[in-house]
Amino acid sequence: MNKEVLVRPLITEKSENLSEALTQYSFVVNRKANKIEIRQAVEAMYNVTVEAVNTAIMPGKSKVRNTKSGIQRGRKSSYKKAIVTLSEGEEIDFFGDI
Questions:
Q1: pLDDT, tens only, 27-41
Q2: Which residues of 5-18 are buried (b: 16+ CB within 10 A; e: fewer)?
Q3: Angle CA(16)–CA(33)–CA(17) in degrees, nearest 5?
Q4: Phi and psi for 49 in degrees, rounded to 5?
Q5: What per-residue confidence (pLDDT) applies to 26?
Q6: Among 9, 13, 15, 57, which one has the highest count of C-beta atoms within 10 angstroms of its own C-beta?
Q7: What is the CATH number of domain 6-86?
Q8: Radius of gyration of the chain from its Cα atoms, rounded to whole angstroms
């Protein structure tokens, strides 16, 4: 299967706290990817050792926004999230040379 496993890193306040305290990093992944494929993709892309992978499917949400032209209704689509735990002493630097 030739599919893109990692879609993007998930940068939120909660994921930043996890990465600082427990060396856990969050990613948005392909819905059809399993834990083994996620582990292999993270190890290949970031050159780290992965101890554990936890996944969750986050539900879609309805969004409402008030504008000049009236109320805009929309929907955020659902996605699959993976929380990856790295070995002791390893880390991933998402921001690099910024």
A1: 999 999 999 999 999
A2: bbeeebeeeebeeb
A3: 10
A4: -105, 125
A5: 94
A6: 15
A7: 3.30.70.330
A8: 16
Name the amino acid, one letter, at 29. V
Residue among 4, 22, 5 nearest 14 (CA)? 22
The DSSP letter of residue 95 is: S
14: amino acid identity, one letter: K
Q: How does pLDDT run across 64-97, given as a tens digit for each residue?
A: 999 999 999 999 999 999 999 999 888 888 777 6
Q: Structural domain boundaries of the chain?
A: 6-86
Give pairs for 31-34: CB < 8 Å, separation 24+: 31/57, 31/79, 31/80, 32/3, 33/3, 33/5, 33/80, 33/82
Instruction: State which amino acid sits at residue 76.
Output: K
How many residues are recorded in the chain? 98
pLDDT tens digits along 5-56: 999 999 999 999 998 888 899 999 999 999 999 999 999 999 999 999 999 9
**In whole angstroms, what separates CA 18 from the centre of its chain?**
12
